[in-house]
Design brief:
By secondary structure, the protein is mainly α. The chain is built from ten helices and no strands. Helix 4 packs antiparallel against helix 5, helix 4 packs antiparallel against helix 6 and helix 7 packs antiparallel against helix 8.
Amino acid sequence: MRTRLAWLLVGISGVCAVADTVVVSAFQPLLSEATIAVHAWPLVNLASLGSAVMGALVISRYPRHPIGWLLSIIGVTTSISLLAESYSIWVVNEGGPGPDGAGDLAGWLAALLGGPLALSGLAVMFLLAPDGHFLSRRWRYVAGGAVLGLLLFVAGLAAEPPKDVVGRGDPEHVDAVASAISSAGVLAISVAVLSAVGCMVIRLRRAEGMTIVASSSGSSSSARHASSSAAKASIVGKRCSGSFSSARSTAAVTRSGMSPRTSAHIADRRTPPPHSAASSTPSRFRRWMETRFGPERTTA
């Protein structure tokens, strides 16, 4: 259900982009300065449609991810705002089809769903990216500032009649209080966007630090694993060499036909005794040689 709704928003955004192109081409050339520089066709149209598509792709994989829904809402509201703005200018300034009241209402709707709403959504999205959670609880105040700024802008816009909002020229008969409220809201939204960008920079630096620590710990653990593997291999090698030597001695005893006890006795007799004080005493033959030829001389 959520996936279908997201792709429905993509369809609405696409229809609005096509309709905006048709309406703009009805009263001015598409390659004119007013179309490209003022109305921002087709850059903003493509950006809004791409935002809706990216949101739908995210929602298709993660239906409850807030980033996906923010992208979808920003895309569809921006597309509707562009279409409403072009229709308002067509009716009010160019004498297009439809009553003036419809043009006034379309212009007011374009201002309501325009830049401030998109910037507020971007600020919240930057604060939640990439995992959908705030970096800390303190960053919630920045999101609250963006929402508060949007509410102030809407309050100031609601205090103005629709006929003072539409058209290419500057609105006439605008209330100073309403204008101040709207300006304060735009300022709060701008501060929230800048703070959200700073939050993304902090996330990026922390992520790089975690990557460096993880790589260093991984290399040290690999070295420890290699050293332990080498130690285990040496122990296994010693055990295997001992097993092979014992196996060769056993095979030799088996071929000679001797019993294991006899072979062990012979091995004990062949093994030289350890160096001790008794073994250092001169033998009988040496004593006879010393009495016959004198003591043995040692050269330094």
